[in-house]
Amino acid sequence: MPLDRFNPLLKTNDLVQDLKWDLEFRARFESDENDVLDEYPLSDAERQAIRDRDFRGLHEMGLHPYLLSQLARLIYGTGEKAGTSGAATALIRSLLGDDYDAYMAERSG
Amino acid sequence: MATISLAVAASHTPGLTGWFDKAPESDRDTVQRAYDAIHDEVAAADLDALLIIGNDHVANTRVSEPWDFSFGLTDRHPGPDEWFKPWLRVADYDLRGAPEIAKTLFESVRECGPNVRGVRENLRFDDNVSVPVTMAGLTSLDVPIIPILQNCTVPPVPDERVCYDFGKALGRAIVEDLPADARIGLLGSGGLSHEPGGPRYLEIDEKFDRWYMDLLVQGDHDRILAEATFERMEEAGSGGTAELLSWTVVMGAIGPRPCTDLGYVAVDQWRCGVGAVRWDV
User: Under an 8 A CB cutoff, do A66 and B82 touch?
Assistant: First the structure.
């Protein structure tokens, strides 16, 4: 259950909120992601997970699932592409890990 | 006594406006007919205000700040919020509010149990308001809107009984505390099954959705509350299906009665079961 790991005090929750609410901050994230991550009061583990696009790790640290999906859109883009979005695909791939290929094969079969 | 002149509920998945054309034609037709029916109902109801009750997708508060319901008290409600525009692809709107009615209702229910707040700045709207407003053509009707944004997904989530009781308090406030000639509509916005940000993000629990819609059509609210619990919604899709708690608020406000199923579709590309209902009021 995605809500079972949720930790409201995890700072990445606030990062995603600030990125959504602040256009200039969001633009800086798009152009200088590393600087933004270094400046924001995150743990080293959070920074590394974001840089690695480790959505599963962020989920396990306590990022709310809504904000997890929004972080994926902040990184991969919010426009929908053919089939499914790059953001949704990247998120599912990370969450399912080694099970991803089998899961997608089963869905398309 | 004022009257509740309209009670409907409908899904607001962003695919309905952002990528509507990815669905098969028959499914698009079903959804369009459902929302057209809502448009027609709103147009015919001659409302003084339409309350849109929908999940706040953590757009207006920090997840560390506890809250349950937010009343939009402003005289205008512009949207959608900037960040959601590429996602939703709807025309910008600037909805007329109903601040006096909103204030009266907020004051009447603020002490009813859950954490209720009145917001005097513009709330940020995403699909919760933008999709029903656009799909039902509400901007052209110029009906005054009162948004009541609800926490359906940040623990501790007010469960089905808290939401139903909040709805009862809201319904009582509408009937007893508003001017005698006021005509109020209710629109529950959200659901059906989906799991945003979870491993089942691409899935829809069609079996749950159809079961839930059938329960509502039957109209036995005791049974709905006993069986369609927050936990059961979470099982059908964690973090998303519980948006149906907004439909629960509407049911609490109007009391036990059957409804008409306006249509249901399960389209994988939309990543959410889509349904709509209209209650007999």
Answer: no
**What is the ipTM for the molecules in this complex?**
0.90
Average pLDDT, chain B: 96
Q: Helices (DSSP H) in chain B: which residue ranges? A: 15-18, 25-45, 85-88, 99-109, 127-135, 138-141, 160-177, 206-218, 221-227, 230-236, 245-254
Contact B171, B253 (CB under 8 A): yes
Disruptive mutation site among A66, A78, A103 for chain B (greatest number of B CBs within 10 Å):
A66
Does the pLDDT of residue B141 top 80, yes or no?
Answer: yes
Which residues, in sequence order, are CB contacts of B99 under 8 Å at separation 6+? B73, B74, B75
Residues of A in contact with B59 (CB under 8 A): 20
| Structure tokens that stand for A105 in this block | 């094969």
pLDDT in tens, B90-137: 999 999 999 999 999 999 999 999 999 999 999 999 999 999 999 999
Which chain B residue has the Cα nearest residue A9? B64
3-state SS track over B163-203:
HHHHHHHHHHHHHHHCCCCCEEEEEEECCCCCCCCCCCCCC
Q: Is the pLDDT of residue A43 over 70?
A: yes
Tell me the pLDDT tens digit for each residue of B244-253: 999 999 999 9
Q: What ranges in A1-109 are assigned the alpha helix state H?
A: 11-21, 23-31, 33-39, 44-52, 55-61, 65-76, 86-96, 100-108
Q: At B14, which amino acid appears?
A: P
Q: Chain A contacts of B15, Cβ < 8 Å?
A: 80
Q: How many CB atoms lie within 10 A of CB A11?
A: 18
